Amino acid sequence: MAAKPAPPGECPQCWAHAHDKSIHKALKGEQCQPCLDHMNNGHPFLVPKKPSSWW
Question: What angle do CA 37, 28, 25 make, to 5 degrees?
């Protein structure tokens, strides 16, 4: 089952890897290269910002 779409302000890749257990289960104990890349280099794309709430 796929995870819900990432909420505004969250990295879609981080959100998917945190909430969709099948992504890491398929690796069978191996290191997840996208997660390692995020830990070392940060997000590979711009993370959408939360909408302004003062309007």
Answer: 80
Residue 55 has pLDDT above 80, yes or no: no
Within the chain, strands assigned E span none
Contact status, residue 43 vs residue 33, Cβ threshold 8 Å: no
Mean pLDDT of 7-11: 80
Expressed in angstroms, the distance from the first to the final Cα of the chain is 36
User: Does residue 14 have a pLDDT over 80?
Assistant: yes
**Could you give the CA distance from residue 40 to residue 35 in angstroms, rounded to a whole number?**
9
For residues 16 and 51, what is the distance between their CA atoms, to the nearest angstrom?
Answer: 21
